[in-house]
Amino acid sequence: MSAKILRPFACVAVAGFVLAAHAAAQSDSQIAFVHVAGAEQRLHYLATATIWSDPGNVTPEMLQAGRTLKQHSPVLEAAIRGEPLPCTFAKPGKELGGNTPKFSCVTADGTALRVKFSDGSKDGNREIFSAVAAAKLLWALGFVSDPIYPITVDCRDCPANPMSGDGSRAKRTYLATFQPEMTRLVMVEGKDADQGWRWGEVDEAIDKLPPGPVRTRQRTHFDALTLLAVFIQHGDRKPEQQRLECRGALDLRAGESHPLEGHAGESVFFERPDKPACSEPLIVVQDIGATFGGAGKTSKASSKMNLKAWTERPVFKEAKPGEVRECRGNLTVSMKAGDGSRGDPRIGEAGRAFLQERLLLLTDAHVRALMLSARVDKLTEDNVWHDPGTGASLSGADAWVAAFKDKVKQITARRCEP
């Protein structure tokens, strides 16, 4: 059984939780998150978790349309097809947490939505473009990502500033995205359900696995994911931007649930040290809005769907004269990411080759569908790129497609140490 993430745009946060004195049956309450048996068990889960799985044949048409909604909603399905979504303003973004421009609204059929939006200005919220592109790319390649849908929302009775809730009310139309509430069973050590994971600790945990096919597979898949994060310039990698979850059923014999005080119908599952409760751990990169730009020490507009900043960052750092020619991804991580965030990460050859194989499955039609579904044609600035190979000058979606392919060439042209 899986548990709902309480906030659609972040993991569950129940810091300093209080437990009732008696155990509760899982059938009587929903598990808010799993308290793993300790640091060693958590690291074992991170080391052995599924990182990649075969997505099957994701066609350009599937990339353009996006993943099928799990819940049937004619209103939302029409919005995903491109029809404006009428939605009556409910709460300003300042009441929803985080700094990204957002608000909540209610559709005619009573569906409550949290939407991220852009006011259309040059410095507006660029995550509504980059998050769509990044989520779809990870999905197409076989890495886990939550579905994010691009929509146009007709915000009814909407204040002039939906983030603060201030200003006169009127119908206002915005480019936006929405992310459905998903059922995820998050696993943490301790009381903070936003614990997430650091790239460095997964890297080190895999290194500590005994030699053999499991370590080889995990190293290959994790290095491929690491290189993909460099490819899209995912530098805003605070631990809470990633999550460790249990996919599939939880073994209720391996622990017990306790009610979570103040959260009616929810509980925390405590795993016993003698038996793992989760047979299918999964690591996920969940917040990928600051991508397809140039990652830096701080998050800024140029770190999100900015063609100039993205193309100015080669995928790999060049080795200095006399240095061993290892592959280092060219990535600056944010100051808030903290220790173990792995700036300029080392990439092994098996991981590089694996990602190359996946990327080469994407045709020009795939890449164009990816960029058009992210609505790069709606960006305020002119997107122009000069092909260093041919000297051709390209603009709009053509520029993004060509720049994407050039990044792929940088990966296919390189060979790394094992």
Concise account of the structure shown:
With 418 residues, the protein is of the alpha+beta class. The protein has a five-stranded mixed barrel. Strands 7-1-10-9 form a four-stranded mixed β-sheet, with no helix packed on it. Strands 8-11 form a two-stranded antiparallel sheet.
Model description:
Helices cover 26% and strands 21% of the residues. It has a 5-stranded mixed β-barrel with strand order 2-3-4-6-5. Helix 1 (39-48) packs across helix 5 (199-207), helix 5 (199-207) packs antiparallel against helix 6 (213-231) and helix 9 packs across helix 10. It has helices spanning 39-48, 60-65, 74-80, 127-141, 199-207, 213-231, 307-311, 349-359, 364-373, 396-412, and strands at 30-35, 85-92, 102-107, 112-118, 149-161, 166-178, 187-188, 242-246, 255-259, 266-271, 281-285, 327-328, 346-347, 384-386, 393-395. Mean pLDDT is 88; it is low at 1-28. It has a domain at 66-128 and 147-178. By secondary structure, it is α+β, with helices and mostly antiparallel strands. The chain has 10 helices and 15 strands. A hairpin with a 4-residue loop joins strand 3 (102-107) and strand 4.
